[in-house]
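Hello, quick one for you while I still have it in my head. No rush at all, and the record is pasted right below.
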Amino acid sequence: MAQRGLAVDHSTVHRWVIKLLPLFEKAFRRHKHPVGKSWRMDETHLKVRGKWTYLYRAADKAGNTIDFSRRARRDKAAARRYREKAIGQNTAPDTVTVDKSDANLAALYALNAQRETPIRIRQRKYMSKIIEQGHRAIKRRTRPMLGFKNFRCAASLSAASKPCT
């Protein structure tokens, strides 16, 4: 922009990011590579409008981000809606690794009750380190901002975060 003689403020670029990233995500989702059959799922907290919300994320065995979702609560219903969304947009996994969260475990058991072939559940505290490292990039980005002003902004910037590697 400077080479063309245009002065653009950082807040203008930020508004462009907020506006255009959802469109890019929708277009790129059609060209997404197939994901692995072993998933790691975890959640972290983000501040949106001064209130804590939860960002659910899933990565495959190779560390590629499968899906993410923001929810206002960290309970069985929120975890179940997220898993149904992730499975609906991708193929169902053979194995899911979660940490010691009771809400995640209860949501997976409820999901398995409706399926013909159940998903194997591994509940290991340290096997989801791949996804825990992926939360670092989001935390590093949000810490100086002191949270987000709205849910849409949080969605855009968490979509733009690097894969969980």
In short: Residues 10-29 form the longest helix (20 residues). The chain has one domain: 10-159.
